[in-house]
Specification:
Elements: H1 13-40, H2 46-73, H3 105-123, H4 133-156, H5 161-165, H6 173-191, H7 207-226, H8 234-262, H9 267-281, H10 290-314, H11 322-340, H12 343-346, H13 364-390, H14 402-407, H15 409-414, E1 421-428, E2 435-445, E3 451-453, E4 462-470, E5 476-483, H16 487-497
Parallel strand pairs: 1-4
Antiparallel strand pairs: 1-2, 2-3, 4-5
Helix pairs in contact: 1-2, 1-3, 1-7, 2-3, 2-4, 3-4, 3-6, 4-6, 4-13, 6-11, 6-13, 7-8, 7-9, 8-9, 8-10, 9-10, 9-11, 10-11, 11-13
GO molecular function: ammonium channel activity
Organism: Umbelopsis vinacea
Main location: membrane
């Protein structure tokens, strides 16, 4: 967040408008994250990941009103956490915010609420395809209170120990990315591996959703980083420039790193790289110029790409690579902020910093390392304890029943599906050569692979048309035309005709 601000407490409508628009952009990132996660998972769990992402908005918004904002940004905070002076948003209205007099307290409150909401949504990605939703909702509330709020307080509240030490974190390297990355590591360790892990090839089921999610994240990140200036200033503009540049550099870098394996330009590699660059530039976005952002995006992509391989060596099941991208990417970004932070960038809105190594402020790297390590240790340790205790409380066991895991969380936990199947039988009139619909059957695929019709038809997705051509002798010839909207269905059909094909169930 912005370190200092102009002394004039008069609000400018442009500053308020930019902060509110940035709030909406960050909100949009959360369903974007859901689509990103949904596409990377298997089709039978696609809807559940979108749902838990948007559920995070609702749970954290309530927690933020109840006491989250007060615990993070109350003026009576100690060096670790705030008090309850502003619980229920008491006294949060038109006075200058604690971060800057550029915007009123209420505007700053709702802007920061979106940061608090997206952080647990990031963390729960590692638990994809096997975690129960009810305990996850309770976990989000507890985790936000005793993990996110203290870290955000010591990072951004002027009373916090990291803030007073001189740590630099413009938009959430430690509170958002390091905390979510190391919480995700604890979550996947407690839950254990998915059934078939190490034996089955868990490939993304819908790359269109991954690209859509990446686009929404990238778009929203302009508000995430640029909005953290809390003013329509040149510093905000620079934050947007370096955010876009780091993401672009990282996307190309990761794609080229993956190109060496199969000589293909992977869409997944491009999207993963873009997100890693966005993560790495987050803490530095208000402190570095364009040249440094290229270096941060490049190094961030390489580090996160290598970290993805690390999970295979260490044999833990981080389903969606949250730790590799957000945990490692956040640490890289924090440390490189200590190297490349520049005084003139902060001065674009009147702020004053000592700078990083580039300004011969050698101690800054140590400050950044201390902040990153403290955030990582607190997040992993407390998350592990929370989940360990919850898993032993009757009714709050974290993992779904094995049968539900095989069936899919969409059916087992939500009862609604992301995809469905339609089969049409069409007869071609031999005289007019016009198609005529003979039969249309709505059906979906049961986990055992058999088609199910009627009220039980709520799994799977695809479209098939059986086209009947009648020749001049009156003989009927049936041709099957397939229109697939679920790669799971596509895989099953391919397997019938080509037993060697992979089936991403």
């Amino acid at each position: 967040m912005s370190d200092t601000a102009p002394s004039d407490p008069t609000y400018k409508s442009g500053d308020i408008a930019w902060t509110l628009m940035s709030t909406a952009l960050v909100w949009l990132m959360i369903p974007g994250l859901g689509y990103f996660y949904s596409g990377m998972a298997r089709s039978k769990n696609a809807l559940s990941l979108i749902m838990v992402s948007v559920i995070s908005i609702a749970v954290v918004s309530f927690q933020w009103w109840l006491w989250g904002y007060s615990l993070t940004f109350s003026r009576g905070a100690n060096r670790f956490i705030g008090n309850l002076d502003n619980a229920f948003l008491r006294g949060v209205l038109g006075g200058p915010s604690i971060a800057t007099p550029n915007v009123p307290d209420l505007v700053f409150c709702i802007f920061q609420c979106m940061f608090a909401a997206i952080t647990p949504a990031l963390a729960i990605g590692s638990a994809a395809e096997r975690a129960r939703i009810l305990p996850m909702i309770i976990f989000i509330f507890i985790w936000s209170t005793i993990v996110y709020d203290p870290i955000a307080c010591w990072t951004w509240n002027p009373a916090g120990w990291s803030f007073q030490m001189g740590g630099l974190d413009f938009a959430g390297g430690t509170p958002v990315h390091i905390s979510s990355g190391f919480a995700s590591l604890a979550y996947c360790v407690i839950l254990g591996k998915r059934q078939g892990h190490g034996k089955e090839d868990f490939k993304p089921h819908n790359m269109s959703n991954v690209v859509l999610g990446t686009a929404l994240l990238w778009f929203g990140w302009f508000g995430f980083n640029g909005g953290s200036a809390l003013a329509g200033s040149m510093r905000a503009a620079m934050a947007c420039v370096v955010t876009n540049l780091a993401a672009s550099t990282a996307a190309i870098t990761w794609m080229l790193l993956d190109y060496r394996y199969e000589r293909k330009f992977s869409a997944l590699g491009f999207c993963s790289g873009a997100v890693s660059g966005l993560v790495a530039i987050t803490p530095a976005s208000g402190y570095v110029g364009p040249g440094a952002s290229v270096a941060i995006g490049f190094v961030g992509a390489i580090a996160c790409n290598l970290a993805v391989k690390l999970k295979h060596r260490m044999n833990f099941d981080d389903a969606l690579d949250v730790f590799a991208v957000h945990g490692i990417g956040g640490i890289v970004g924090n440390l490189m902020t200590g190297l490349f932070a520049e005084q003139y960038i902060a001065a674009l809105d009147g702020s004053t910093i000592a700078g990083g190594w580039i300004n011969h402020n050698w101690i800054q790297l140590a400050y950044q390392l201390a902040d990153a390590c403290a955030g990582a240790a607190w997040s992993f340790g407390v998350t592990f304890i929370i989940l360990f205790i919850m898993d032993r409380i009757p009714g709050l066991s974290l993992r779904v029943h094995p049968d539900i895991e095989l069936q899919g969380l969409d059916h087992g936990e939500i009862g609604e599906m992301a995809y469905y199947h339609v089969e049409k039988v069409i007869r071609i009139d031999p005289e007019t050569n016009e198609p005529k619909l003979v039969e249309e059957v709505h059906q979906q695929i049961h986990p055992n692979g058999e088609p199910v019709q009627g009220p039980e038809s709520n799994l799977g997705s695809a479209q098939f048309s059986s086209v009947i051509n009648v020749d001049k002798h009156g003989n009927e010839h049936v041709h099957h035309v397939e229109q697939v909207s679920s790669p799971r269905m596509s895989g099953e059909i391919q397997q019938r005709h080509n037993p060697g094909a992979l089936n991403n169930v």
